[in-house]
Design brief:
By secondary structure, the chain is mainly alpha-helical. Helix content is 63%, strand content 3%. The protein is built from 4 helices and 2 strands, in the order αββααα. A two-stranded antiparallel sheet has the order 1-2. Helix 3 (73-94) runs antiparallel to helix 4. The mean pLDDT is 81.
């Protein structure tokens, strides 16, 4: 496979893995009671499982594992570093254990810093 096709092929694999993982994440959300219930300030009319981000993160990690080669190593480490921070913050938020100001002023700037690649680059 040539390098020109690496990222589109990786995107297709990540998309497919995400589609397969969303039903599993929905079952986990029901089991762990991570459900967004309808209310007066909500636009949905039925309960919605919240842990879809786990399916996206898992698909990204698995996909990067397939394509971890020297040409994409720096980008892969940056994606994994920032993605892990965002996934952990999102998980605690979905479980209702994180205040929105913590996300805004701590977690998201930290993820932005880590996406530069400096935070998680192997030495």
């Amino acid at each position: 496979m040539t390098y020109a096709w690496t990222w589109p092929f990786a995107g297709l694999i990540a998309f497919s893995l995400t589609l397969a993982g969303v039903p599993l994440a929905a079952r986990l959300a029901h089991r762990w009671k991570a459900i967004d219930w309808p209310g007066p300030l909500k636009i949905h009319h039925r309960p919605i499982p919240r842990l879809g981000g786990l399916a996206i993160f898992g698909a990204a990690v698995l996909t990067l594992g397939f394509f971890l080669e020297t040409k994409v190593l720096r980008e892969a480490w940056a994606i994994l570093g920032a993605g892990t921070i965002v996934a952990v913050v999102g998980f605690f938020d979905d479980m209702g254990r994180l205040h929105s100001q913590v996300k805004l002023f701590f977690a998201m700037p930290l993820a932005g810093w880590s996406s530069s690649g400096r935070a998680f680059m192997p030495r």
